Structures are given as structure tokens and as C-alpha cells.
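Section 5.1 Outputs to date
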Amino acid sequence: MNSNTFRMPAAVLLATGAVALLTAPPAFATGGGGSTGGGEGKAGAVVLRAGLDVGLLNKTVDLPLKTTLNEVSAPATAEKTALSVTLDGVEGGRPVSVLRADVATSKATADKNRAEAEVHLANAEVHVPGLPLLSLIQVENVTSKAVCEAGKKPVAGSNVLGTVTVLGKKVTLSAGGPTKVEIPKVGLVSLELSGTETTSTTAAAAALRLKVSVNPLDLNVAQVEGEVVLAEAHCESPAGPAPEPSAKPDIKAQSAASGTGAGITADANLAETGGGSLTPYVAGGALVLLGAGVTALVVTRRGRTS
């Protein structure tokens, strides 16, 4: 009799529990936090970069001449058209004019989508100590540009337009190798189109690179050696934004844990309106279970009265 008393509420609970389970809206799993963007790119540009050693007639040591013109890192713009440096013991202590130009600009920008650097140099003359009247190089128009976009291959390029004059001599540049200019009692300059270099995330370009070895023997300057680079631009790609999460969650139907019954996929409108194509079957199943519970109750009472 105790066992019959136990089965009666179990049958009723089973029926009511089935209704609650089958009519409850589906539960969705959601990830925490929103999307995060990637890091910004990097870019830089410089109009002129010089690294020279200047030997003096009256001294056994060399004076370093290391300088840049309009060197910028993103975000920045520079438009200085003249550069002078002062070296003790050279040209009577007066400033040495290294570069004069009509246009000498450098610009660099960078954000989370794109990094870009560009340089423009026009009607420019470069001088070294000991040669105040004879320019090391003269150029009409020089440009360099580097662009790095997130998710794209970086690109870079340089252009040298118009005439190029080295130590007073017009030269024709070749992409196949350096052009050497030698002036008796003055020295040797090796000039080349510097070209470009790119990787999967970086790009760099420099228009002209000069290797200098001159011996002016004037203004107390015995020797000038080193390198001069014109119109240099470089960049590094941004990391790029992280992918956005899907607007519609990926919902998969739950399958039965055991037995041979097939999984049930509820209609999407069921969670919104409380009804759907399965509603009649759910109600019918609940009524059957409720009927079974009532029957069990009646049988139990008859057994107790008899």
C-alpha cells in the first residue's frame, strides 16, 4: 500500500513536469564581452639621412656628421626646406649648408586600418663639408611612398624624375647597379637607386643612396666618407580588427540521451509566441499523461476501499 501511495503522486508529477519541459523556450549560450580591435599601424619618413665622417687637415681625428632632415613618425608632417650643421674646425666655424630645396616634405599617418608614409623633394642640392661651391648631388624631383593596409600586402615605391647631377656632372641612373662618378682631385661618389623592400607586414622605399668618398683638401677638410640617403619612407601594417561575433546564434537541437527516440527541434516562433507547429502534440501528450495519473488515482482508491 505504501508503494501504491508513492506511485500516485509520481504519476501526477510526471504529467505536469512533461508540460513544463516541452513548452519552455529554448536556452541559448552567449559569449561574454564584445569584439576588440587590433593595434594601430606604424609609419615613418625622412627627407635626408646622412652619416659621414669628416677628417680634418690639422687633426688626426674624424668628426662625425650624423643628421636627418624632416624625420617624422606617424602621425606627423614636416616641411623644412633647409638644413645646416656646425662642425668645429670646418669652414672657419661657420654653419655648413647640407641641404637646400624648394620642396622638402615628409608625412606619416597611421590608424587601425592603414599606415602610410610619403616624402617629396624638389629642386634640391646636397653639400658636404669642404665643398661649399660644388654640390654633392642635385635632383629635380624625388618621391617615395609606402602603404600598409590591414589584411592587404604592403606596397612601396620611389620615383626619381628629371636630371640628376653628381659633383657637377649629369648622370644617367640604372636599376641594374650603382653609377660611379669620379672627379680628379675631388673624389668618388657611388650612386644607386635604392629600391624597395616589402614583407607580409612591412614596406620600405628609399629613392637614392650615395656612398661618398671625397678629399676636398680645402677649408681644412682632408676627407669625407660615409653615406647619404634621400627620400625614405617605411610602414608596418596594423594588426586589424578582430572578427565580429555572429548576429544570429548557432542553435543546435538537443538529441535524446538514451533510447531510440529522435531529437525534437522546436519551431523558432515557439519561444516568441508560446505556440507553434508542435503545440497540439504537446497538449495531447500532456492530456494522456494526466489521464494516466487520474486512472492511477482511481485504482488506488478502489483498492483502499475494498
